Amino acid sequence: MSGNPGPSLSSYSYTEAEYAVSGTATGYRAASGLPADGRLALVPTSRATYKTRIVVRRPASPARFNGTVVVEWLNVSAGSDSAPEYTYLARELLRAGFAWVGVSAQQIGVQGGPVAVQIPGVTGAVSVGLTGTDPARYGSLHHPGDAYSYDIYTQVGRALWDPGAVNPLRGLAVKHLVAVGESQSAIMLTTYVNGVQPLDHVYDGFLIHSRSGGQAPLGTPGAGIDISQGISSVPTIIRTDQHVPVMMVQTETDVLGILNYYPARQADNADLRLWEMAGTAHADKFQLGAAESLLGCSLPVNRGQQNFVLGSALAHLATWVEGGGPPSIAPRFAVSTAGSSPTYVRNAAGNVEGGIRTPAVEAPVDVLSGLPPLNSSLVCLLSGSTTPIPAARLATLYPNRAAYVGAYQRATSAAIRAGFILLADRAAVLAEAQPQRIPN
Questions:
Q1: Which of 94, 189, 345, 425 has its Cβ near the most Cβ atoms within 10 Å?
Q2: Where are the domains of the chain?
Q3: Strand partners, 33
Q4: Which residue in 149, 230, 163, 147 sits closest to 190, CA to CA?
């Protein structure tokens, strides 16, 4: 669910259109289970027809296109298609000239089904999907089940390479396809990059954002995938014997929270970068926008600056797939294993130590957490929290407002130098400073 409409497409001379996509997709079975090392050997099984839809946002002029298409596996956790990665990445997508394609890859988005993340008073336990929402427009769509979602995603990518007359990217010189997905979609992409990418090699790079420790199951025909099985499955790394760039970006909620990525944490290698973002949550104010008021959380949701880090991740991934150098290696969260379960090490201000440090964390006026109070609803568990630092404490951190502004500006410059925030975002980051919160 997103309450953030994003920038105006017309102001960037972009167009938006929707297309039906049909074909016959293949399902898979694992030859020897879902291995923890990610080396997933898939065997084709059944085939089934499908008709789904894609949404395309592209530069109107081919001269504005930078050659890379970002293909988002649309998220269905709230029972309908949403595009959380587009929301986070839109500023960089539009100003840098990317094309974006959102794919209705899963059954629940097309035909409805059980809702994984219910919004109190907004969503029910079962959704109706596109076909039920607007039968006149989408009534001809049909999805044979998530067992076929992986190949549907492959076929959409393959079609985008085809310069034929029916290609929605007609007129654009496509050089690279980058696969992106957040949350449930990231868990599906973990299975995709470990099993399908080695078979088909359709995508040139992957941005996997907020995955769990496990990978998604392969599914059964006629049904959606129960994503809780992916969350609770054996912790699985991204396989190290495939040679496609993978950017994995994780929040505090993902690593030690409900998604429990920590047991699958792996070292960076020639084809993988793992960025952990301090002071961030699985969903946040930037993503939710005005929808925050509908959630009923006991604390304000997380107001971290992950959108800036994600924009940098996309820009560096695009350079990487072009043949440039890999993104910077990032520090990891500081985690203590002294107790019965891992916990974050926090600094004097209350924010986690380690990870990528945005100015809101390095020059804090709030404690930004991915882990909200216990007994929260699921959607609030995913949305973290923002707790204002008391004025008396702020007075000890910053002798005056000028000291705060100086610390915030230095933190911004450090993050830009390290490659975790783009220089193009400097003004926007600086605009988020809050000197009025400092009592002196």
A1: 189
A2: 10-358
A3: 31
A4: 230
